[in-house]
């Protein structure tokens, strides 16, 4: 038989260990790297829009008027003209703004929005470039090895920043923007 003071101490220690174990368990499934970055991007864009006095868009929620919708789009995506531009191998130009909430989020996450725009546009269009050039994807990937390395470096940076943002943000659900 265990003496009462020891039994009580054992119960307290066991309870503390159980609570510590529960506290250290994740509250849900771990996010993929893409979902982590998307969730942090949404947190940042929502904060930016709220700071500008706007309600962040959500599925099923519509702006009250066309003017409200235009104001929201300008705040989120930026106002013309687009400041960043890159012409793809097939001659199609791709443009982006640097003044909207999305651009602000990208600068925070990737550290260099202009560089991220360029390498992500190139990397996201490797397949179409291979088809356009009638070349293998492997050959096009080899031609853009430096872009792929830069993309991986910037994405790793964004993943680290995203994890910090989400740890410091209460009740982050991880939805997409």
Explain how this protein is built:
The chain is mainly alpha-helical. It is 63% helix and 5% strand. It is built from eight helices and two strands; from the N terminus they run αααββααααα. The protein has a two-stranded antiparallel ribbon. A hairpin with a 5-residue loop joins strand 1 and strand 2. Helix 6 crosses helix 7. The longest helix has 23 residues. It is globular, with a radius of gyration of 23 Å.
What is the strand and helix layout of this fold?
Layout: H1 4-24, H2 33-51, H3 66-77, E1 84-87, E2 93-96, H4 101-110, H5 113-124, H6 126-133, H7 137-143, H8 145-167
Antiparallel strand pairs: 1-2
Helix pairs in contact: 2-4, 2-8, 4-8, 5-8, 6-7
Rounded to an integer, what's the Rg over CA atoms?
23 Å
Molecular shape: globular
Please outline the major beta sheet: 2 strands, antiparallel
Overall pLDDT: 83
Strand order of the largest sheet: 1-2
Beta strands, count: 2
List low-pLDDT spans. 1-26, 172-177
Kindly estimate the percentage of residues that lie in beta strands according to DSSP. under 5%
Element-by-element helix/strand order: HHHEEHHHHH
Percent helix range: 55-70%
- Kindly name the structural category: mainly alpha
Number of separate helices: 8
- Distance N terminus to C terminus? 60 Å
